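Standup notes
- DV: blocked on the single-chain target, sequence here:
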Amino acid sequence: MKKDNTILWIIGLGGLAYAAYKMFLNKQRKKENTGIKVPDVNPKTGEKYSDYDKAVMTLQTLLAAKVDAIIGPQTTSLLKELYLGTLKYGDISPLNVEKYIAEVKDKTTPYNLKMKAEAYADANAKSQQKVTKIIEQYNSDDKLVLNFNPVNAVNGQFQVYKVVYNTANKDWERVGTENAMAGRKTRDGGVAYSYSKNWNALIVRINKSGKYLYIAINPDFVQVIY
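- DV (later): unblocked, structure below
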């Protein structure tokens, strides 16, 4: 089975905000009926539903509202929650129902975007705290070394970004890619350097074939050990 390189980058880099938001999306999607099917005929009257009626029922299904093709207080209230109180396109109508369906389904409503931003901010804050702790531990005893935890590696290594410090931006920028082998690193080849807000990661100096270079790696995958 071919591996997805995108997943490898997420494993090697910070990826924390992405993972937090994906978890949020997965929880939301579990509440939905992903295979949405609406009836063609009104069971009470025997009349065929119009395309607009079907669209309303699709939206109601996405909102976990009563599915009756009637835009009542419940449907409107649930939709307003996703738009933080104000309906972006106005009251539900044939002119905008498909827009609402698309944004609710794709998780791009103001509520979803707000949750995404909060997930990113929370993940970034936690990542920075972890990096700070690693650096403090590493500097507390010259017998300590860094270990790239093999448990989290893919085929015994982490595929990460090779970075250099940009003095203008005051952060690290990518200059290439690198394979960092899992397992213990010596102090000479595993210096905990700093936190990168750009990559939401720990910057580590490693010795590769006798040359020093810097990489960005997820702090969750780095241990400080004797």
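- Follow-up: The CA atoms of residues 107 and 113 lie 8 Å apart.
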